[in-house]
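for the recovery benchmark. tokens below, seq after
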């Protein structure tokens, strides 16, 4: 392997223009989610292993939406449009102008093939040191509609699309992943020669090997495990991809020392981060943006997204942490509690049946069962501040904006509409009046009325 070749700059060309008809969806295929991130984001993340100097995403079907997603995920990437989807070869050609001044290798990746590993991309790069064109293949358990790779020793002679294949060729299990790398200018020059005289009437990228060989260039294929090349064309394949992603992510967490007694029931996101010796009980769902520190416990049936849980915290069972929930060390969020955009201070407790939104809860504070922050007036959101070591009585409504001082107390059932000074007791509920004997009298009267009606 010559350093001269492997150190050439790389460009990624990610194909994301196809209609994805078999998804039966209004959402463009590259934006369907795996582990809470668009499959396009997975493809971009995989390609990042090559430290590409340039990234070109070819958009077409649903271009506005796909381009907005690219701007969000990888603002440094460039989008080029393929107005008509005339095939994978035609799609790559759309990157020509964007790469006109680029001297280096172009890797063609597919937005709908999100699981390519870093090791495989590096293996392609390594093979490129001794070949002009390197395609990525795999042995398929069920070759189905994949293109078949025709090899002579280590020479890739031709790729035949299933639609165009003879029965003998269809029996070949070595399939084309679609990924290919070669000098960017050479790729474009060869693609100019691709025609559309085939069963699909499309300009196939898969015509490249044959054209390259005819030009005297050396073409080879390297192989990767089939799991990496899972192409997503339907909802069934999307569900399979999700399962594959989940299995790998769970495995990674277990390997990192997370305790998960029932890993198959835990649903993770692409960026879920859980520290070693944390416990994740069965049936916990992680949306995007969650970090859980070592030693925290997430109890069963909890749902977390966009939140941070510090060491020593216990969350759930049946807790919901929404974006902006930040739990300091040793905080406790118990059953049927929802927390949104709120800091829960060190050692503070919200043990049961509460809604806490847009709030700051001081260290060591205790929110009794049924505490509700009334944060929304129908137009605007307002903040609630509860001081350190304050004690909020059960079933208190905290009508925001409101401030409860340190070590203050609210009586159970209070509707707190005014600030409570530090150390004060606030009682904001109707006064109790006892009427001796009246309960019995009332019951007797009601029973007599009922008996009269039944006669
Ligand atoms: C392609 C390959 C096939 C390979 C398979 C692997 C060709 C001709 N065939 O078939 O050999 O086994 O992938 O999954 O290349 N796209 C565009 N513009 C187009 C057409 C496609 O951007 O005009 C994009 C799609 O969005 C997708 C990718 O290219 O990301 C592959 O297209 P798809 O239609 O899924 O090709 P396959 O039929 O799966
Ligand atoms: Mg496909």
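predicted aa per position
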């Amino acid at each position: 392997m010559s350093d001269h070749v492997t150190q050439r700059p790389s460009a990624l060309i990610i194909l994301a223009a196809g209609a994805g008809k078999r998804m039966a969806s209004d959402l463009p295929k590259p934006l369907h989610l795996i582990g809470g991130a668009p499959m396009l984001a997975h493809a971009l993340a995989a390609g990042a292993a090559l430290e590409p100097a340039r990234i070109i995403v070819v958009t077409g079907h649903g271009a506005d939406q796909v381009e907005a997603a690219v701007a969000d995920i990888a603002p440094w990437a460039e989008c080029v449009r393929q107005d008509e989807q005339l095939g994978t070869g035609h799609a790559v050609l759309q990157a020509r102008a964007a790469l006109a001044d680029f001297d280096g290798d172009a890797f063609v990746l597919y937005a709908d093939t999100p699981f390519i590993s870093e090791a495989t991309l590096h293996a392609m790069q390594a093979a490129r040191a001794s070949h002009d064109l390197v395609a990525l293949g795999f042995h398929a358990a069920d070759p189905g509609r994949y293109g078949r790779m025709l090899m002579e020793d280590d020479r890739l002679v031709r790729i035949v699309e299933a639609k165009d294949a003879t029965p003998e060729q269809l029996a070949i299990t070595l399939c084309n992943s679609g990924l290919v790398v070669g000098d960017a200018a050479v790729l474009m020059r060869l693609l100019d020669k691709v025609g559309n005289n085939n069963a699909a009437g499309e300009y196939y990228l898969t015509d490249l090997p044959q054209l390259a060989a005819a030009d005297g260039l050396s073409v080879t294929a390297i192989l990767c495990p089939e799991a990496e090349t899972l192409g997503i064309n339907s909802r069934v394949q999307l569900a399979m991809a999700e399962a594959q992603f989940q299995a790998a992510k769970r495995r990674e967490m277990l390997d990192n020392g997370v305790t998960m007694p029932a890993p198959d029931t835990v649903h993770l996101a692409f960026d879920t981060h859980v520290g070693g010796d944390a416990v994740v009980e069965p049936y916990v769902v992680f949306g995007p943006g969650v970090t859980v520190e070592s030693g925290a416990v997430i109890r069963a049936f909890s749902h977390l997204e966009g939140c941070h849980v510090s060491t020593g915290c216990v969350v759930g069972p049946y807790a919901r942490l929404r974006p902006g929930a930040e739990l300091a060390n040793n905080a406790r969020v118990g059953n049927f509690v929802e927390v949104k955009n709120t800091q829960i201070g060190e050692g503070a407790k919200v043990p049961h049946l509460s809604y806490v939104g847009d709030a700051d809860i001081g260290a060591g504070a205790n929110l009794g069962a049924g505490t509700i922050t009334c944060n929304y007036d129908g137009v605007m959101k307002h903040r609630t501040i509860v001081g350190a070591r304050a004690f909020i009585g059960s079933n208190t409504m905290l009508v925001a904006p409101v401030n409860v001082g340190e070590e203050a107390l609210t009586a159970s059932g209070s509707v707190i509409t005014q600030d409570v000074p530090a150390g004060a007791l606030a009682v904001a509920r109707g006064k109790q009046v006892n009427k001796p004997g009246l309960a019995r009298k009332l019951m007797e009267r009601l029973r007599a009325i009922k008996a009269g009606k039944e006669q």
